[in-house]
Fold this protein.
Amino acid sequence: MQGYPPPPHQAEMSKMPPQQQPPVMGEPVMGVPYYVQENPYQAGMIPPNAIYGDPKGVPLQQTIYRDTPAPFNCLYCGDTGLTEVRSKPSLASVVGCLMCCGCGFCFLLRSMDCLWHKYHYCSHCHQKVAEFEKSDPCIVMDPPNWTEASFAVPA
């Protein structure tokens, strides 16, 4: 092997400052972040600098798509703005309808859109950019979380 210096001996390596010592196989590299937890924004935490309306050219790091129109940068046409939201009945709306049919109140009605799946489309090119599906039928019993606002995190 020409051009490569011989590997340093163990005694020589221990005299080297820690920044200059070569990493040992199997050990984590210092200075490289390693995240074990899930994204806190996906889990429901809303950052203090969240953008809810039209981003108006502000670069976005991430968009969290939920029930309301979301600020986003379209991957298909490059447009920046708010998504168009279309809805489709969910399991939660069916459960809500079955629970409340005796009262004459049904969550399958178009006016009870809060428990339906939401599909986000670009308002410029009309491509589907995201979906927010309500898969928890127990949300019927949690009215404060029926409608969740979409938001974006600026870069």
